[in-house]
């Protein structure tokens, strides 16, 4: 039986989704998730070895997500002049280079060199996310864009779990916690021991390089649809080709601006909660080591996966805005619990918060992108990826609050406030939609 022909619509969307290409595209979400989850391992390791404050250790996320911020617009320009596939291949190459830099970083054993390696990885991931998020939403019918991106995002927790498992068994070691072991040593012995522990940070990146090479080859030899809007008019093309005009249009789009803020705060909150979970566990139960504490991150990512899967089912029946209002309300309450209840139940509450993260990124991305005229899609997608810089800012803010208050738990109020904004944002979208529907109904009657 002949397969139905895949046809690209004038707006760049397709009449149906090519399954193989969609699966390969979705696998990229797992690729950058591995790198992001390993950051949580590195923060814990670096904090003890380099004797860092909460703010200084949060610079791991600042270097990582700062790279996203800087590369997103250049990546969108590459997409505009070439195609999504070329940008993805470019991102994979930079990702491989960044992972390779862990070889000299683990031997030089300086915090700055590690941050540089993470920044290089982030450049590659900036290309991947700028291309893959927008591409996933467009590689099929327009009406299922949000659902499609949510399905792609379901691969994210799978990669996160793999990253944490590699960190648990390849970076963290058996015995007492690193901080406890080093506290019993002389300064000279502790320095030598710390350098030995830093050698283990290289191990997971060796495996990631091999995985990336396989994925790179698959993309090189697989044909992908363009998914780029057709030329609409000479005026449109001039606007499309002028970056300043595009930025001015986006800056004047109030709905787009609100979506950018929501994405900024969401990514910052997600990154912060995950970055602090292992350390929260060690703080509340000092009798366990890093390897055991990392189990709670595995539980968090399993909860994240379940939250995405269930959200995908709910989105087929209910308004995505309604779902996000409920999720954000529950999440805000749970983060208040994490902040003020000084026992291990706070860690379990943080795990449930990860369940509620499930539909946030994809829904904010797809619905914000839908507020933009199609000729500005590439740059709008890049600006949304730039909002990932929230992952550089919010962890640092929570780290500063933690250092200022001398209490890691109270600092979770920062994350709670972020989730509250997400709730208000989607509540506003619901009210706007109701108002529009009421106006339409009134005009009909």
Automatic annotation (TrEMBL):
Topological relation to the membrane, as annotated: Multi-pass membrane protein
Pfam family, one: MFS_1
Source organism superkingdom: Bacteria
Subcellular location field: Cell inner membrane
InterPro entries reported for this sequence: Lfuc_symporter_FucP, MFS, MFS_dom, MFS_trans_sf, MFS_TsgA-like
Key words of the record: Cell membrane, Membrane, Transmembrane, Transmembrane helix, Transport
Family annotation (PANTHER family): L-FUCOSE-PROTON SYMPORTER
The name this protein goes by in its record: L-fucose:H+ symporter permease
TM region(s), chain numbering: 59-79, 86-105, 111-133, 154-172, 207-226, 264-284, 296-316, 323-340, 346-366, 378-397, 409-427
Gene Ontology terms for molecular function: fucose:proton symporter activity
């Amino acid at each position: 039986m002949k397969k139905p022909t895949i046809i690209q619509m004038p707006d760049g969307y397709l009449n149906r989704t090519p399954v193989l290409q969609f699966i390969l595209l979705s696998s990229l979400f797992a690729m950058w998730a591995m790198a992001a989850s390993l950051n949580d391992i590195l923060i814990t390791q670096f904090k003890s070895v380099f004797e860092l404050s909460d703010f200084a250790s949060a610079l791991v996320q600042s270097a990582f997500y700062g790279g996203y911020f800087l590369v997103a617009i250049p990546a969108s320009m590459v997409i505009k002049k070439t195609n999504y596939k070329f940008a993805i291949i470019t991102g994979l190459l930079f990702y491989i280079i960044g992972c390779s830099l862990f070889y000299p970083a683990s031997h030089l054993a300086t915090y700055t060199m590690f941050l540089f390696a993470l920044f290089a990885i982030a450049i590659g991931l900036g290309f991947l996310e700028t291309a893959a998020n927008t591409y996933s939403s467009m590689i099929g019918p327009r009406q299922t864009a949000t659902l499609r991106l949510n399905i792609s995002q379901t691969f994210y927790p799978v990669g996160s779990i793999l990253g944490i498992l590699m960190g648990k068994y390849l970076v963290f070691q058996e015995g007492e916690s690193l901080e406890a072991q080093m506290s019993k040593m002389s300064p000279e012995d502790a320095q030598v021991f710390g350098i030995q522990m830093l050698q283990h940070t290289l191990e997971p990146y060796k495996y990631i390089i091999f995985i990336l090479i396989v994925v790179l080859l698959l993309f090189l030899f697989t044909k992908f649809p363009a998914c780029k809007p057709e030329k609409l008019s000479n005026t449109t093309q001039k606007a499309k080709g002028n970056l300043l005009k595009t930025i001015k249009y986006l800056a004047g789009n109030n709905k787009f601006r609100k979506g950018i803020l929501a994405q900024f705060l969401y990514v910052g909150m997600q990154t912060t909660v995950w970055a602090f979970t292992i350390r929260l566990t060690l703080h509340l139960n000092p009798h366990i080591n890093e390897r055991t504490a990392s189990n709670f991150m595995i539980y968090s990512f399993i909860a994240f996966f379940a939250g995405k899967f269930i959200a995908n089912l709910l989105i087929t029946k209910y308004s995505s805005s309604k779902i996000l209002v409920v999720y954000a309300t529950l999440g805000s309450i749970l983060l208040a619990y994490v902040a003020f209840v000084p026992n291990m139940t706070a860690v379990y509450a943080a795990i449930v918060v990860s369940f509620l993260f499930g539909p946030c990124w994809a829904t904010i991305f797809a619905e914000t992108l839908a507020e933009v005229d199609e000729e500005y899609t590439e740059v709008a997608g890049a600006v949304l990826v730039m909002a990932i810089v929230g992952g550089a800012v919010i962890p640092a803010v929570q780290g500063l609050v933690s250092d200022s208050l001398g209490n890691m738990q109270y600092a979770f109020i920062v994350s709670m406030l972020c989730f509250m904004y997400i709730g208000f944002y989607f509540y506003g979208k619901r009210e706007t939609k109701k108002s529009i529907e009421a106006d339409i109904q009134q005009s009909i009657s």
